[in-house]
Structures are given as C-alpha cells and as structure tokens.
Write a structure and sequence with these properties.
By secondary structure, this protein is of the alpha+beta class. The chain is built from nine helices and 15 strands.
C-alpha cells in the first residue's frame, strides 16, 4: 500500500475519533494545519470527500462512514499486532540451541533448567551433547559450553561453573592383589583407560599436579574410548585405572564401586564457560538463558 495513503487513512480515523482537528493534532503530535493538509491530500487521492467541516462541527460524509466501517477492523488488527510485538519483547520466547560437553550438560546446565523453565515457560531449550569440537556458527547453535582454555578469541564467554576437579579412580576388584599407584611413574605397571577426542582423534594425555608442579604423561592405553560414561563403567568393571571429572565419579566413590588412587596428584580443569559469537545480537530469550546459567 502507498505509504502516504496509509498515513492519511490513519489521520482520517484519528480526526473522526477525536471529533476535531485540534484534539487529533494533540493525539498525533502534529499541527492542525498539517492534519488539514493530510486530509486534503487523502481526499484528492481517493477522489471523494470524506469529511463535512464547518466552523462548529465535523462529521464523516456517507462515503467517509463507509470507509471507516471497513477501516476500523484493519486498524484494530494492526494495533493488536503491535501490542503482541511489544509483549513479545517484554516476555522472552523462542528456542535456544546449546552445544555442551557431557559433564557440563549434566552438572552445570541441567541443575538450572527446571527453575529456568518455570520462569520462562515460552522458551524451549535444545541441548546437544558432544564432547568433541563443535563449530557453533556453522552448526547453527546459539551458544556452546566448554572449558575456558578451549574457547576461540572472537567469542564472548560467561563462566557457568567453578573449576572442575579431576580424580584418578579404579575398582576395588582391580586394585585387589596389586600395589595401588601412589606416584605417576607407578602407572607403567597398570592398565590405563584413556579418552580419545572425537573431533581431533587425539588421545588425552594425563596430567598430574602436586605442590605447584604440573606433570604430563603418556600412559599405557590398554583401553581407549570416546565416551566418558563408557570409560567410567569400564573402570567400575575392573578393567583398569582412569581419570574422571570428580562429579562424574561421585556416586561410584560414595557407594564404593570406585576408589581413589594417586591421591593428591589429580589436576583441576578450568571452569565451564558458556560462549557465543561477539557479533551476535542476543534475543531477549537468549539473554534470559545466559543470566540463568551464569555462575
């Protein structure tokens, strides 16, 4: 529709509703002369007189009445759409797609989601668990969750967890009849369960920390997997020694199906960070999600 024509129709409807040019001008924030000019232009375009005007009265002509009858539902519909748009800005809604590694998904994100869902019932969350590298832009994720040292420089990041302690563990059945390792060099005599990164194919090198020293060792990988749950369950079965995030072994340590070895040598992972591209324009829903996840 002609923009000037639509503007003129809105002016016409306001003048009739207000009952005078002066009151309509106040409502629209325009001068009475500007409204008079707009009405003359509208009537010229339509080729019909829409208002009967005298010094004391103002009323729509029969043609103006008929036009108003058809115009008002359209104006009401537009006003409703604008109101809905305003409500949408005030009430966050939409879908958030998140890529996270397994431990962050279970221990940093899930514990906060129930409260988030109650606070924002119109926001849906899709959580895709992947321990490998994920290009969140190419794969159309709103954000990712990884350890701080894994983040790219052009990402905005928000910490969502404390540093994550690791623990070296084995099943009592594996330790039985063997000398439990107390030093990293003792591992040469033990079966070690290792983790391979899916995206790079690299086998994780074990790190050890004590008294401010950090050591790195390539251990004998008698069993290798790309799944942290499988690695934990393999340790529970008595297959060997592995290194796990403490939260992922807490239940097994509590019930005795795993025991700690190499006590005092386990390092700590950097905190988990939620990250997204710096050029992204966050929606209200995404801002609400980031705030809810912030540690």
């Amino acid at each position: 529709m002609d923009r000037d024509l639509w503007s003129g129709l809105a002016v016409f409807e306001t003048i009739v509703e207000a009952g005078s040019f002066a009151r309509a001008a106040t409502r629209l924030g325009l001068s009475a002369s500007a409204l008079s000019h707009a009405m003359r232009s509208l009537e010229t375009k339509l080729g019909v007189r829409l208002l009967d005007r005298t010094t004391r009265s103002l009323a729509p002509t029969p043609a103006g009445e008929e036009l108003l009858a058809r115009l008002r539902p359209a104006i009401a519909s537009v006003a409703g759409a604008l109101a809905d748009l305003g409500n949408a800005r005030e009430r966050p809604a939409g879908r958030i797609r998140v890529s996270a590694h397994r431990v962050a998904a279970i221990y940093a994100i899930l514990p906060r989601l129930a409260d988030f869902a109650r606070a924002y019932p119109d926001i849906a969350v899709e959580l895709v668990v992947d321990d490998g590298f994920v290009d969140i832009v190419a794969d159309r994720f709103d954000c990712g969750v990884r350890h701080a040292q894994s983040l790219q420089a052009d990402m905005i990041s928000v910490r969502i967890s404390a540093p994550v302690p690791l623990v070296f563990v084995a099943a009592p059945s594996y330790i039985a009849g063997r000398a439990a390792p107390v030093d990293p060099d003792d591992l040469s005599a033990h079966r070690c369960l290792c983790y391979r990164y899916t995206s790079s194919g690299i086998v994780h090198r074990w790190e050890f920390e004590r008294d401010g020293r950090t050591l790195e060792r390539s251990v004998r990988g008698d069993f290798t997997t790309n799944d942290i749950d499988v690695m934990r369950d393999a340790a529970v079965s008595g297959l060997g020694i592995t290194c796990l995030p403490l939260p992922h072994a807490a239940l097994q340590l509590a019930d005795g199906t795993l025991v700690e070895v190499l006590t005092g040598w386990a390092p700590t992972l950097a905190p988990n960070h939620l990250y997204y591209p710096s050029r992204r324009q966050p929606t209200a829903a995404f801002r609400a999600f980031v705030t809810a996840m912030r540690a």
